[in-house]
Amino acid sequence: MAATGKTARSNNNANKAADEISERAQRIREELKALSDALAGAGAVQSGIAREAAEERIDELLKSGERVIAELSGHYANAERQVSSTVREKPLQSLGVAMAAGFLAAILLRR
């Protein structure tokens, strides 16, 4: 009978240890889940920050592109006015330059 008492006590101790291990494992799972949720939230914040920075950079690039286009458009308009006034002032010279340019282009493209 004494052996049965020892066996019962040892089974009881084993059950308590198993229960304690199970409880600790459950707490660890819960803490890992909380940590995972916190990391996911931090990742979302970081991706939001990265998205905002990218959008700001895109806006800057678009504005810069618009300025460049406006500047080039102004230069093109000035060049067009200058060519137009030169052709009006010297029509025969302009015709000769255009013919020479066409002749050179034909020679280069023929090869």
Keywords:
DUF883_C, 111 residues, mainly alpha, ElaB/YqjD/DUF883 family membrane-anchored ribosome-binding protein
Describe the protein in words.
The chain has about 110 residues and is mostly helical. The chain has one domain (about 1-110). The chain contains 2 helices and no strands. Helix 1 crosses helix 2 (about 90-110). The chain is rod-shaped. The model has no long low-confidence stretch (mean pLDDT about 80).
Briefly summarize what is shown:
The protein has helices at residues 2-89, 91-110. By secondary structure, the protein is mainly α.
Biggest sheet descriptor: none
Q: What is the element string, with H for helices and E for strands? A: HH
Question: How many β-strand runs?
Answer: 0
Strand content: under 5%
Instruction: Name the poorly predicted regions.
Output: none
Shape by Cα distribution: rod-shaped
Distance between the termini: 115 Å
Radius of gyration: 42 Å
Number of domains: 1
- Rounded mean pLDDT score: 82
Helix fraction by DSSP (H/I, runs of at least 4): over 70%
Number of helices: 2
Structural class of the helix and strand makeup?
mainly alpha
Protein name: ElaB/YqjD/DUF883 family membrane-anchored ribosome-binding protein
Domain DUF883: 87-109
Region (Disordered): 1-22
Question: Can you lay out the helices and strands and say which pair or pack?
Answer:
Blueprint: H1 2-89, H2 91-110
Helix pairs in contact: 1-2
